[in-house]
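Margin note: ligand = beta-D-glucopyranose.
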Amino acid sequence: MKISRIAFITVVMAAFVLATAFAGGSSEQSGSMSSGGGKIALLLPETKTTRYETADRPDFEAKMKELSSSVQILYSNANQDANLQLSQAEAALTNGAKVLVLDPVDSAAAAAIADKAKAAGVPVIAYDRLILNSDGVNYYISFDNVSVGKLQATSLVNQLTALGIQNPTIVMINGSPTDNNAKLFKQGAHSVFDPLVSQGKLTIAKEYDTPDWSPDQAQNEMQQALTALGNKVDGVYCANDGTASGAIAAMKAAGISPLPPVTGQDAELAAIQRILKGEQFMTVYKAIKPEAESAAELAYDLLTKTPVPDSMTNGQTVNNGKIDVPSVLLTPVAVTKDNVRDTVVKDGFWTAAQVGLQ
Ligand code: BGC
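Resulting structure:
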């Protein structure tokens, strides 16, 4: 009697374990909604910029693991292909994703994804880049991107002044025309440059938008600019570190020495090393950990239908052309060789050894 009761309990427990495993579709990571499980899709845009695979993805995954061991993350990277991203999002919805965290390759085209998710009752978080013209966007988490452009432009202008260059000639290498952030960086930069241009204190000799944020394209653009300007350039505004690497390669190939000040963004390891070597003047550090962690917290609240605390957005919204999207906007920081230690190293983004500081 005693033995058979134990056997019965064992069978019931085994059946429960099996049922739980099958309900989630994966025995390891999924569980029932009541235990805080379910599927969340994380859709990132590209791999040439190092942040996505080295910071955004691992930081998001680590935070989610901390919040619940039973949430399954469906991860995809679109390699700069907006159509591929659409099919990745559709596959995530078909596979049962209950929240989409989407960093769109194309901010306008991604409206189709957010609309589809809305029709399926799946909330969407626009991650780092806003999704335009859709009422299917529930939250937007990013940095103050106009400020990023202002920081870059102000640092460049101050450095040109410090170098004593009168009416300097600069080249502008902006980001991808399909990325809403690129538009905001450019807007911030122009808000600093344009008044100087109208006062005759600065010349923007050439300006390019760089398809796909491609470093190779940026190198071609810089090469064209150098040819047109007879190699006479006093400063280069580059919207991120990848495009800065391309511009610097073009100037080195043209034999320009010393290199003029070049801006960047992302505090990529290679960029910090270039800054310490004197090849790149500045970058913008955006602390990705709090960005990815806020996205994970928000996604988890949406998945478990937990009310999102007001402190998350503090009532802040950004209009996406259709609706005001509740938003979390973090603060970017300018980094030159003078504050590498006090910013990226202090924050643990890179160690002193990684960047080559002892
Ligand atoms: C991001 C930048 C990144 C760029 C290229 C922008 O939307 O905010 O951090 O360098 O895309 O991926």
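Residues 46, 49, 51, 128-129, 175, 179, 181, 213, 240, 265-266 surround beta-D-glucopyranose (CB under 6 Å).
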